[in-house]
Protein 1
Amino acid sequence: MKVLVVGAGGREHALCWAIAASPLVDKVYCAPGNAGIAEDAECVAVRADDTAALIALCRRESIDLVVVGPEAPLVAGLVDALEAAGIAAFGPSAAAAALEGSKGFMKDLCAREGIPTAAYARFTDAAAAKSYIAAQGAPIVVKADGLAAGKGVVVAMTIAEAERAVDAALGDGRFGAAGAEIVVEEFLAGEEASFFALCDGTHALPLATAQDHKRVGDGDTGPNTGGMGAYSPAPGVTPEVEAAVMDRIIRPTLRAMARDGRPFKGVLYAGLMLTGSGPKLLEYNVRFGDPECQALMLRLKSDLVPALLAARDGLLDRVDLRWYDEASLCVVMAAKGYPDNPVRGGEIRGLDAAAADPDVKIFHAGTRREPAPTEAGGGRLIADGGRVLGIGATGADLAVARARAYAAIDRIDWPDGFCRRDIGKRGID
């Protein structure tokens, strides 16, 4: 097979790396990719939102399967366009991707189906939202309804902070159309976890569990980000918790989406809060998490490609996936100033030394070569994004994987970069 992965981040690097290992696959392409992905796939300079150019690329290279990484092209209908052109694609339709594209849509579905989640209300008027917040009190959560690159959620510890979040979305238009409506919801206390299930419209196959770290600073301080690190497995997701999530959250969602003419195919990512009264759904994403995908792919023992095909073809009940017993961990190195104004253009050195440990894999998220690489060799590696690298490692347990990842980070020479130093610590404790 020839497989095209759409996207340019660390998640897409992990997918390219896993897909390239499949004996079913002869060639992996990535559009547009990055400097690190170029080591595992052929990168093609086509943007993830250029549907016509992606279809042309698939026809030119006789692509057998397209795997769409990021949420924005899924919500915009890329899978619909590919399938209409006769090109097999892994990922949900635009109608099904509304589970991530609109938090209000997701919350309304939960309310209709009795899926456990935080109490909420939807607003387009700032004064009404502030009145609701005053009545509810703090802490409270304010979310932009649409896609905001992981930056549209404010966990407000005071009413004043919540009101500022309302003004940023509805008054200042900080998130554009994505923030034209907001969801204000109850603050849930507990342990967060990321739960992934492959879905084929009817059946769901749970994947290994993972724990993400959303805040930018050590000790879960600072603003929310797209994710600063992840580890797998998540100790809080016991077999009993997994069964509860499948029975009360994932399967009811699949049934409702199929009933409403929006059958969900792809990977359903449930952000959970493990509360004293059981797991509750914080939000749905309709693609692999980043950096959870990196942690998961490091532990995946089975061939990923047959599972992706089965999800697309409605045959997941015939598939099983096996995982290494080892733990995995991925630490994100970001550019100083992230998530607001990351410093771009700094040179990164020392990756060869960092990756010398065979239990370490470095995933690229925001890198480029300068000048462009030639057959004679590559050029300088330049930071070209907010989240730039994901330093992944495996080990007999989480402590070993964590030690390997940070030892690799200490070999990287990148003055403009930083990372959290406590990824995985809570899991070990």
Protein 2
Amino acid sequence: MARNRYMVGLVFLTFFVMSLLTNILGPIVPDIISSFHVSLTAAGFLAFAFFIAYGVMSIPAGFLVERFTEKPVMILAFLVGALGSLSFALFPQYRVAIVSLFVIGAGMATLQVAVNPLLRVAGGEEHYAFNSTLAQLVFGSASFISPRIYSYLVLNLNGVSSGQNVALRVLGRLTPAGLPWASMYWIFAASALLMVMVISLFGFPRVQHTDEESAGSWDMYRSLARQRVVWMYFIAMFAYVGCEQGTADWISKFLYQYHGFDPHTTGATAVSWFWGLLTAGCSIGMLLLKIFDSRKVLIGAGVGALFCLSAALFGPANVSVIAFPAVGLFTSVMWPIVISLALNSVAEHHGSFSGILSTAVVGGAVVPVIIGSIGDHLGLRAGCAFLYVTFGFVLSVGFWAKPLITNATISLKKVSAEAPV
């Protein structure tokens, strides 16, 4: 039992480091544009490189885990992440950044496939729902912290003095004077290598994959690909990840361009709160899903997200800086609801369907590029307006979804009737 508790802790730590590496793109976009003198479209291709790797690796990673087991695959994934981080830390150039982010994305996608079954076995199936939710909170906490680490480094690496702490002095020597934000990649590399050493010390339990976790056969994928509902949910997941990344990646640049907010302070803080509220919203969503049909919750979340997006894009500075993070609050329930509706809408091959849905994270690759491309021609506000399309499609799921099984809810009337007088 002690080993299992330690293993659950290791999985939580893995989620934390994964998030630390995954959600830093938003705050650094303004720096990338100014440091490398690239267009909005070119900046969008950074997110494209990262999330296209997720799409490419999601299904192959499942076969890797089934062939080699979790421990060696996790070690390999973190080594790949460290290699990607070091390549940019040593050679901070735009072209290297594209390759670096693709490599990091491939490693993180592989990790995501490996750790979920491990969490179920290490913590016990009876605690899996709770542990899985807690893991998402851990993941979200790193998303909240990561932009703040970036802000701290950028503000303190300029003019590093001997009186500052050892870490800052070392990073100051390693990082080019004009690119203090690139120091984040040294942090990423060190974190990934530390995880390799930590994982090497653990003895892993044997994992028997459930139908939902199994990669499945190619015949199963072909069978699912012939079903219209599978493609509809693929598009919905594509749109959702596009909403999430398309918002987060451009918040800081938008606030700087239209309202003059410093991307190193106010911009980074807004991105941090976007992820923070997205995480906090999960708890509110769990409560709502016990009371209302998930489709109604999804419709309400979609309307709320569109309202906040409108306020962020067209409101004054003091409204925009609050409304952008608020989008994250309404976005928080979309992922679990769409996933559950999707899996509850097919009768078999849930593991293979999960793999197909995982590849839909390429939405996080495509949508930021579309926003950047429109932004180069019509302005970033017009580019961000493309999010009305993606949020609109996610909202539409609440109207056309017809799951075979609906979410269990508590009848408030029944609870009231049964309550003691």
Protein 3
Amino acid sequence: MSLSLLFWATVVAAVISFWWRSDKIKHGALAQVSRYCKNQNLQLLDQTLVLKGVWLVRNEKGSLVFRRKYSFEFTSTGEIRYQGRVVLYGALLHSMDLEAYIIPDDEDSIF
């Protein structure tokens, strides 16, 4: 086996590993966002997160981790779409913020 082939096999394996891990992290983040929206009587639209960026940063412990920023859409009334953002450091939720939204008049959830 040549050194060149070994190098490229390692690169391909690293890319596949990164993609696989990122997909698992995205599904975990989607579950957290979905749970949060349900608790706040909001509806997560399209059941999807859109990756907005990946950066290397240091977490609170000083370790290098990937910072992933996702956006999503939600509604409070079923009529208007609002934007939300979630930031993860590694696989851990760092922050979530929602655009200001209308709170329905009635106490019953429409979702």
